[in-house]
Design a protein that fits this description.
It is a single chain. By secondary structure, the chain is an alpha+beta fold. It folds into two domains: 54 residues; 119 residues, no CATH class. The strands form two sheets. Strands 3, 4, 5, 6, 7 and 8 form a six-stranded antiparallel β-sheet that branches. The longest helix is centred in the first third of the chain and has 67 residues.
Amino acid sequence: MSLGHIVREGCDPCGGAPHPPRRERKAHGEILRSPRSLRMTAFGAARSGFSLLEAVIAMVLVGLVLLAALHVLGGTTQSTCHTARSGTGLLLAEALMAEVLAADYADPDQTPLFGPEPGESGTGREGFDDLDDYHDWSDSPPTEPDGSAMTGFDGWTRTVTVEYADPNDPMETIPTDEGIKRITVAATYAGKPMAEPVAYRTDCEPDE
């Protein structure tokens, strides 16, 4: 058998170890890579680019979530402030309502008029002695009965409305006195309504 038949690719005719596959042989100090290695390298480069895109998308999503959270927080803060002011307005209105309800149904000393009688109006409410003396009374900021301002309530306004109510339907207003009056005290902050309690008084005084 000739030498040409003995020598085959990958075999050493001297009986040594097989030659490494040609695709792994070094040529001038470089490694010759197979097509599969080249495909893996290209896939790795593409994979790195996709990861960067994912990071950008994630940053955008996080920004949108933070923006939504800040919007919700702002709404919650405004709702909390409104609730607190509504409570303050109710306390201010009820304090004035209690003062109004403590007065007589009609003026006990003079011929009753709707509104303050002569000599009862002034800088404060000290001269008011019946319900309708308070009609259209307004103070801003809220004041004590003597007219002195209540501290810490800048921006608040209280207004009293006294009306004749229909005995058959107290929600209805009538022009003459039929023995029942409706009192409304409105409290506003910066022009916005915060509280508006309503009460009724009749001319039926309790027996002593």
